[in-house]
Amino acid sequence: MMGAARRPCRFSSRGNKKIYNRYVLADAIEERHESKTDHKPLRLKTFLMILVMVVTGPLGNVLLGRGMKHAGAVVAWPPSELLHTGLRVFTSTSIWLGISSLILFFVSYMLVLSWADYSFVQPASSLAYGVVALLGYLILGESVSPMRWLGIAIICLGVFVISHTAPRTTTQQTAREN
To answer: What is the DSSP-derived secondary structure letter of residue 5?
Structure first.
């Protein structure tokens, strides 16, 4: 009922007091239903971009870590050794894949922040902690204790709670003014 006139509620259930600037229950339910459907396209693209962020950020970091472990310790003196280390770093496939992955992460992060609230995006992207642990275990051979997995599960539970809120609570005009 987007175009329909709204009826002010003149009586409340408490003592029949006049309350202006309120809608009757039927209008409030219809309006609430409309706002849920208005967020569907926003939610889908937001969740897809957050998924890209959750995968590409940790993947890029793990690939950079792997590439740097293969390149060896960076020695700053003598300068010829620094040049040799730089050549090993920048000829590494893992380093370039990591850089590409992190660029993709950064672009998706900027996109999602352009249409969703920071207070929604940042907690939702915390699912990356689970991906970090998984990639550390699978690619880097790290040991992940059950206590860490429990902590990650608690973080994921918080993300589940956050995901049931609207991704954007500000209007475009309010966002521009800030």
So the answer is: P
